[in-house]
C-alpha cells in the first residue's frame, strides 16, 4: 500500500488521504456533499448509539420534524436570521417536466412554490413553531426532545466530515418553565457531551462558554467543548445553547404557570455532528493510518492465520477459530481473516491502516508453543501471549488502549496550553499551534482585531475559570480573567 | 377522553383522529410534511432496530449518500425519469439576502445554481453514479449496502404516515456480478420484509410479484408484500426490486469478470418506510384506540396503584414497586404510573388509548389477597392473577398477545380473499373490500380498464401461484392463473 503523506509534511493532505483511503468518506457528484462509506458510517453508528443511550438516560425522547422550513420562519428571530439563514439550499419549485426538445427534464415554471422552503440548517424555528401547539400549561413542561437528522449549510470551502454542505447530526430542543431549569439542562447536556468525548472518543475536551461574538445565532449563552488536534488547531466538538425566551417570543409560545399567569417558555438546544468523525481521526491517527479507540472500532480484534501449506493451514485455522469463538463469546467485535487471496503482510498493513486496535497472528510454531502474537495499534508494539489466557488478556488490553489513547491525547493537549502574557508570546503560540491562555479586555472589538491579526478566536472561557487580575494581551487594558485562544477548524 | 369516531362510521376519520390523539404524528406548517411525535417515533425506532439487525445478519452494511441529486442524473435512466422525477422538491438557489425594504429575507437571484438539485425521491441514480468508482473487478462485488434516510415526493393529497411529501425509510442498493445472484438477493430481502411484517408487526402479508404496470420505475421485476387493512383496502408494505443492468448501463458501471471480460453490473434495490406505521395502526387498532404488538410497544406493561388515602398508598405503592422491579429485571418495558394528578379511571382509558398491551392494577384488597388485576388490550378482557407468579405470567402473555394479534389479523385477511369468476362477483368484492383472486388476460390494457372501472389494481401475482386455466374476469380471454386484485392505499 502506498504510504500516507506524513503529518509533518502536509497535515491536511494527510487527513484527506486517510479519510479517502481508509474508506471513511468521499466527495460526491454534488458540490459540498459527501458520501459516508460503510466503514466510516459504522463508526458514526456507534457514536449515535452511545449518545442516544445517554440522551435517553437523561430523560430525552426522539422525534422527527420536517426537512423544510418556510422562508418566513427565519425572519422571526432577528439574531437567528442574521447568523444563519443566508447560505442555504432553497427549494423554489415542486415539479419537473420533459424538455420540449426531448433532451431530458427541466423545471416546470408553473410549479413555483408560493413561499420558498429552506432545507433546514438547524431546526429551532420549525420546532418552536410546533411547540406553540403543544404547550398550554406548566403541566406540559418540560419538553425534552432530540432529533437525529441531516442538515444543509451551503459551504463554499468544504472538507470531508469537518465542513460539508450536508451533514448528519443530532439536535436537542427542550422547553422549560423557568430560566434556572433551562440553564441546568444546557449544562447537563454539555456534561453529557464532555463525558462522551472523553470516555468514548478518548478525546480530552475543555468545557467552557463562548464569548458573545462566538455565540449561536439566537442564544443568550453558548456552552461548548473544545479539543486540540495534532496540528495544534482547536476543534469545537459540541455546543449546548441556552436560548432564553428568544424563540418562544418569536413564535409566541406561552404557558400558564401554577398561578395561572401567562409566561414565555424557556429554551435550550444542543448538537453534535459528523464533524466528530474528523475530530476522532485528527486526534488519534498517525502516519501509518487510522487509530481507533476500542469503544468505536468496528473491528476490535483481527486474527490472522499464518501458514505455508494446507496441512499447516488446517491446524492453525482450527486454533484461530477457537480463539475467534472465545473472543466473540466475550462480546468482542472480532474478525478472523482467512482470505487466501492476500498474504499476511498485506493484511497486517491493511488492518493497521484501518485502525484495528489489536491484531493477533498465529503460525505453526506459535501453535506448537501454545502462543499467539499480539500487536497493538496504539503503540505499534508486539508481544507473545499465552494462548490460554488470550480472552482475559484481550479484554483488559482493550480497556487499556482506550485509556492510553485518552491519556496520550491529554498529555499532547496539556503540553500545548500556554499561559502567555505578551503579544509576542501570543503570536508565537498561534504560529506553532496550541491554546494560548491569555488575558483579554472583554470587548468584541479586541476579539475581532486579534482574529484579524492572527486568525485566532476565543475558543471559550473555561467553566470555573479562576479570576485573576491582568492586562489584555493586545490592548493592555485591565482584565479579570484569562480566556482560551486558538486557531480553530 | 372524547370517544373516537367508530371505524364503521368513518374509517379515515377514525384513523386520522387516532394518529393525532395517540400522539403519533401531526401535520406540520410545511404542506405535506408531518411531525413524528415521540410516541410514534419510538415505535418507528423499534422497527428500525429490528430491521437493521436483520439487514446486518444477511450481510449488509449501512452507508450514507447525498440528499441532493443533480437534475441530469434523472434523465439517464429512461423509465426511471418517467416514473419518478416529476413531482419533487427542486433546489434552485443557495443564498438568501435581506429584503431591501427590511421586511425579512428574499432569495438572492445571484445565487442561482448552474444545475438544479433534486431532493432525493429515491437514491438509485446518485448511488449508481458512486458505484461506478467503487467497482472495477468481480472482486469488488457484491456490494451490499443500506441507507436510512429521509426522501421527498411531492404529494398533492397527503395522509399521516400513509402518504406524505417527506417520509423516512430505508433503501437497500446492492450490486452483483450475475443476474442469478441479484435475483436471489431480491427474493432474500422480500423474505426479510415478510418475516419482519409477520413476526414483529404481526401483520400477515402475501408475497408476490408486480405486473409490469405496477413495477418500480426502472425495475425488471418488483416483488412486494401486500397486507389487508380493516376497511378491506390493501396496503403495499414493502418492495424489493430486481433492476437488471438498467442502472449500470445508465451510469456506465462495469466490472472485469473472472475471465477479464467487461460486463455491466446487476442491481437490486428494496425499501420500507414510515408507511409501515400506517399499516400497523390500521391492522390492529380498534374503536378504543391503538393496539400495539408487544414487540413494538414502547410500554409493554403499565402498573397502576389504586388507593384512597396515604396509608393505602404506601402499602400498595411498595408492592407495585416490587412488581415493577421484577418485570424490569425480566427485560420488560414496564412503567409504574403513580402520578397522583390523575385518577385510576383516567389512566385506564389513557393507556388503553395508547395501546399498552398489558395493564396491571392493584388496590388494598388485592394486596391483602396477594392478587393483581390484569387487563389485556388485545381482547379487552380482565383476570385476577396471583402476584407471586406475575413475572412468568406476563412474559408468556406478551408472547401470546403477539401471536394472537397476528392470528386475528390473518383470520380477518383470509376471510376476505375471495375467489371470483364473474365480473359481478368481482365488483361486489371491490365494493365491500377485500382481495379478489381472479383470472386476468395478462394485458396492461385490461388491467388499466379494470382500475378505471373499479379503482382496483393487481396487488400482486402471489409467489408459487398455482397454474390453472380460466377466463379473464373482464374480457373473457384465456388466462392460466389467478392474480390478486384489491383497491389499495
Please work out how many helical segments of chain A DSSP would assign.
14
Strand arrangement within the widest β-sheet of chain A reads 3-8-9-15-12-11-10-23-26-22-21
Round the mean pLDDT of chain A to the nearest integer and report it.
96
Q: N-to-C terminal Cα separation of chain A, in Å?
A: 30 Å
CATH superfamily of the largest domain in chain A: Bira Bifunctional Protein, Domain 2
Indicate the CATH architecture of the largest domain in chain A. Answer: 2-Layer Sandwich
For the largest beta-sheet of chain A, the strand count, sense and barrel status come to: 11 strands, mixed
Q: How many domains would you count in the coordinates of chain A?
A: 3
Number of beta strands of chain A: 26
Query: Per DSSP, what share of the residues of chain A sits in E-state strands of 2 or more residues?
Result: 25-35%
Shape of chain A, please? globular
Low-confidence stretches of chain A: none
* CATH fold-level label of the largest domain in chain A: BirA Bifunctional Protein, domain 2
Q: Biggest interface pair, residues each? A: A-B, 63 and 63 residues
Please give the oligomerization state of what you see: homodimer
Helix content of chain A: 25-40%
Nearest-angstrom radius of gyration of chain A?
26 Å
Can you tell me about this structure?
The structure is a homodimer of 489-residue chains. Chain A is globular. Chain A has helices at 11-21, 38-57, 71-74, 78-83, 124-134, 179-200, 246-250, 275-284, 310-329, 344-353, 364-368, 390-414, 423-432, 444-454; strands at residues 25-27, 34-36, 61-62, 68-70, 87-98, 105-107, 112-119, 143-152, 166-176, 206-209, 221-228, 234-244, 254-256, 262-264, 266-273, 301-305, 334-336, 358-362, 371-376, 382-386, 417-419, 435-439, 457-462, 470-471, 478-479, 482-486. In chain A, strand 11 and strand 12 (234-244) form a beta hairpin. Chain A is built from 14 helices and 26 strands. Chain A folds into three domains: 11-67 and 125-284, 2-Layer Sandwich (BirA Bifunctional Protein, domain 2); 301-405, 3-Layer(aba) Sandwich (Rossmann fold), CATH 3.40.50; 417-486, 2-Layer Sandwich (Translation Initiation Factor IF3). The longest helix of chain A has 25 residues, at 390-414. In chain A, helix 2 crosses helix 6 (179-200). Chain A is of the alpha+beta class and 489 residues long. At the A-B interface, strand 2, helix 2, strand 3, strand 4 and helix 3 of A face strand 2, helix 2, strand 3, strand 4 and helix 3 of B. Strand 5 of chain A pairs antiparallel with strand 5 of chain B.
Amino acid at each position: 500500500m502506498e504510504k500516507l503523506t506524513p503529518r509533518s509534511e502536509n497535515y491536511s493532505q494527510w487527513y484527506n488521504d486517510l479519510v479517502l483511503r481508509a474508506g471513511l468518506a468521499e466527495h460526491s457528484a454534488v458540490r459540498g456533499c459527501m458520501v459516508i462509506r460503510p466503514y466510516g458510517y459504522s463508526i458514526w453508528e456507534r457514536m449515535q448509539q452511545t449518545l442516544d443511550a445517554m440522551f435517553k438516560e437523561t430523560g430525552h425522547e426522539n422525534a422527527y420534524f420536517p426537512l423544510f422550513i418556510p422562508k418566513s420562519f427565519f425572519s422571526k428571530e432577528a439574531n437567528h436570521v442574521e447568523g444563519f439563514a443566508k447560505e442555504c439550499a432553497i427549494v423554489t419549485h415542486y415539479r419537473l417536466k420533459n424538455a420540449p426538445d426531448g433532451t431530458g427534464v427541466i423545471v416546470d415554471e408553473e410549479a413555483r412554490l408560493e413561499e420558498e422552503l429552506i432545507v433546514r440548517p438547524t431546526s429551532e424555528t420549525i420546532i418552536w413553531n410546533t411547540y406553540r401547539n403543544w404547550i398550554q400549561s406548566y403541566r406540559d413542561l418540560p419538553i425534552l426532545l432530540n432529533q437525529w437528522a441531516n442538515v444543509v449549510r451551503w459551504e463554499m470551502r468544504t472538507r470531508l466530515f469537518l465542513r460539508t454542505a450536508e451533514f448528519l447530526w443530532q439536535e436537542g430542543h427542550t422547553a422549560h418553565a423557568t430560566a434556572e431549569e433551562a440553564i441546568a439542562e444546557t449544562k447537563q447536556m454539555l456534561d453529557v457531551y464532555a463525558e462522551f468525548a472523553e470516555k468514548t472518543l478518548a478525546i480530552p475536551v475543555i468545557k467552557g462558554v463562548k464569548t458573545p461574538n462566538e455565540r449561536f445565532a439566537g442564544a443568550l449563552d453558548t456552552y461548548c467543548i473544545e479539543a486540540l488536534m495534532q496540528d495544534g488547531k482547536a476543534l469545537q466538538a459540541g455546543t449546548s445553547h441556552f436560548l432564553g425566551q428568544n424563540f418562544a417570543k418569536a413564535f409566541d409560545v406561552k404557558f400558564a404557570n401554577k398561578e395561572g399567569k401567562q409566561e414565555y417558555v424557556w429554551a435550550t438546544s444542543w448538537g453534535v455532528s459528523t464533524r466528530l468523525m474528523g475530530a476522532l481521526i485528527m486526534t488519534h491517527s498517525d502516519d501509518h493510518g487510522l487509530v481507533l479507540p476500542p469503544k468505536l472500532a468496528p473491528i476490535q480484534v483481527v486474527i490472522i492465520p499464518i501458514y505455508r501449506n494446507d496441512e499447516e493451514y488446517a491446524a492453525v485455522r482450527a486454533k484461530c477459530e477457537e480463539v475467534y469463538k472465545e473472543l466473540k463469546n466475550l462480546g468482542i467485535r472480532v474478525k478472523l481473516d482467512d482470505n487466501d487471496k492476500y498474504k499476511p503482510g498485506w493484511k497486517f498493513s491493511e488492518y493497521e491502516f484501518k485502525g484495528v486496535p489489536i491484531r493477533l497472528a498465529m503460525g505453526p510454531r506459535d501453535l506448537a508453543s501454545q502462543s499467539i502474537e499480539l500487536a497493538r495499534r496504539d503503540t505499534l508494539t508486539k508481544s507473545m501471549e499465552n494462548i490460554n489466557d488470550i480472552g482475559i488478556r484481550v479484554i483488559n488490553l482493550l480497556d487499556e488502549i482506550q485509556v492510553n489513547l485518552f491519556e496520550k491525547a491529554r498529555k499532547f493537549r496539556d503540553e500545548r496550553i500556554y499561559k502567555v502574557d505578551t503579544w509576542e508570546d501570543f503570536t508565537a503560540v498561534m504560529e506553532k499551534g496550541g491554546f494560548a491562555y491569555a488575558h483579554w479586555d472583554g470587548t468584541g472589538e479586541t476579539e475581532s482585531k486579534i482574529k484579524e491579526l492572527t486568525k485566532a478566536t476565543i475558543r471559550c472561557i473555561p467553566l470555573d475559570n479562576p479570576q485573576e487580575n491582568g492586562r489584555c494581551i493586545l490592548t493592555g487594558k485591565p482584565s479579570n480573567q484569562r480566556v482560551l485562544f486558538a486557531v480553530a477548524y
